[in-house]
Specification:
alpha+beta
């Protein structure tokens, strides 16, 4: 079993490892996808029309502006050659301190647009829910209908086209080492969460709730069900995720604590 990090520095390193290994898994699961490591960069090239699946990560400290610009241009050139939309997801702790205040300007000069911050979070185990969980019908993601539901809910939840989401979530191979749950109310799919194992840790992803059903505790409920399924499947309890601003308060109430901050930029 992998060592469980127990210092702030180790937790930050683990956050990097978790997100990079999760995106490696996504890229290799999708048709034609693969992974490239070069000069302080990790490129997870899923050959996907969904930008979020084609990602570039820093793997070592970008020490100055020239170094950072070189890596951004290398990533942009790779995805440009393939005609793919992509995202650059640098962790702030891998950008030298003097550059952090200028990160938006540096990326904008390279043609990237800021999308959102993401916060690495970890929980050794979930805290009990502070309120009764809502009543949902739970369905495991095992067929085309539930894979489509994952795409549609995430598309609506994150304002992205459902068909682009389905190009990723609709691939059966993606679910070989991932469990997913969709929650239904009166026959309508309203919320979803998925988990994949990374280094004896449950990595949570694809969490979303339809806009008309948010604020009712559905994300909490489907996450707990997906994590319970992951424990039964793989025996993992410790859990990591990378949260959007909207999701972060929900996860904090569930027992997750912040580790480090990422910034997400979209390129075309």
């Amino acid at each position: 079993m992998s060592h469980v990090p127990d210092t702030p520095e180790a937790l930050v390193a683990d956050s990097h490892r978790q997100i990079q290994r999760a995106w490696r898994y996504f890229a290799r699961a999708l048709p034609g996808g693969g992974v490239i490591e070069q000069d302080g960069l990790l490129l997870t090239d899923a050959r996907s029309p969904l930008a979020f699946m084609n990602a570039a990560f820093l793997t070592t400290l970008a020490s100055d502006e020239d170094d950072l610009q070189r890596r951004i241009e290398a990533a942009a050139a790779h995805f440009r050659r393939r005609g793919l939309p992509w995202v650059f997801m640098p962790a702030e702790d891998l950008v030298a301190e003097p550059l952090r205040a200028h990160l938006d300007a540096i990326t904008a000069a390279a043609g990237l647009q800021f999308m959102m911050p993401m916060t690495g979070m970890v929980a050794p185990a979930l805290q009990p829910s502070a309120r009764p969980l809502p009543t949902l019908e739970y369905r495991a993601v095992t067929d085309e209908a539930t894979r489509r539901a994952v795409a549609d809910i995430n598309g609506e939840g994150y304002a992205m086209p459902g068909d682009l989401m389905h190009a990723a979530t609709g691939v059966e191979r993606l679910w070989v080492d991932m469990v997913g749950v969709v929650g239904y109310v009166d026959g309508e799919a309203v919320s979803t969460a998925s988990v994949t194992p990374v280094d004896q840790t449950a990595y949570v992803c694809l969490v979303a709730t339809r806009p008309g059903h948010q604020g009712k505790g559905y994300a909490d409920a489907v996450m707990r069900r997906a994590l319970a399924d992951a424990r039964r499947e793989w025996g993992v309890q410790r859990t990591v995720l990378h949260a959007t601003p909207a999701g972060r308060p929900v996860y904090a109430r569930m027992g997750y604590a912040d580790t480090n901050l990422f910034r997400v930029y979209v390129g075309a």
